[in-house]
Amino acid sequence: FRTITHTYDNACDAICNICFSTREVGDHVYDDICDGDCNECGFNRYDAFGVSGDCNWYVVNGVLTINGNGAMADYTKESGAPWGKDITEIIFVGDITEIGEYAFFECPLLENVIIPETVKSVEKRAFQSCEGLKTLIIGNFVKELGQGAFGGCEALTDVVIGDSLTVISES
């Protein structure tokens, strides 16, 4: 019995280990938006993917990667973010400038969050009620935390705040 795994060498240049097709210059095995679908065998390397404001995102095994240049979209308590609440880790890539309202509201499996240097603001209730959140590192250029951005994160014990934080909105 042999276990077959799916590995890819990066987000857009990929080799599907199910059908061994590759996407190279001039080859269109994977479609142009890099959604992870192998056009040969149909395997999708992402559990979920989409767009959030000026950013793209995808989830693989509970790890959410957000990549973009600009602000993430805002969400509501009722609708929630499209990636769901079962994410275990967030990886920010690119020049993301704003983390949207309710983006990670009630994500109980998140334990550590590192907000990168490119982020200028974390909007209201972005991480509210992330009950498992223990460690938070806020990058040096974050200037503003919105209302209740980390409210209800009762397990939070290790916090590092960058030098530029000047506004913490009241809850």
Descriptive account of the structure:
By secondary structure, this protein is mainly β. It contains no helices and ten strands. The protein has strands spanning 48-52, 55-60, 63-71, 89-99, 112-115, 121-122, 135-138, 144-145, 158-161, 167-168. The strands form two sheets. The chain has a seven-stranded mixed beta sheet, with no helix packed on it. Strands 5-7-9 form a three-stranded parallel beta sheet, with no helix packed on it. The radius of gyration is 18 Å and the shape is globular. The chain starts with 47 loop residues before the first strand and ends with a strand. Residues 1-35 have low confidence and may be disordered.
Helix-residue proportion: under 10%
Structural class: mainly beta
Number of extended strands: 10
Give the strand content: 25-35%
Q: What's the mean pLDDT score?
A: 80
The main pleated sheet reads as:
7 strands, mixed
N-to-C SSE string, H for helix and E for strand: EEEEEEEEEE
- Our measurement of the CA-to-CA distance between the termini, rounded to an integer number of angstroms, reads 56 Å
- Poorly predicted tracts of residues: 1-35
| Total of helices | 0
Gyration radius from CA atoms, angstroms: 18 Å
Strand order of the largest sheet: 1-2-3-4-6-8-10
Overall 3D form:
globular
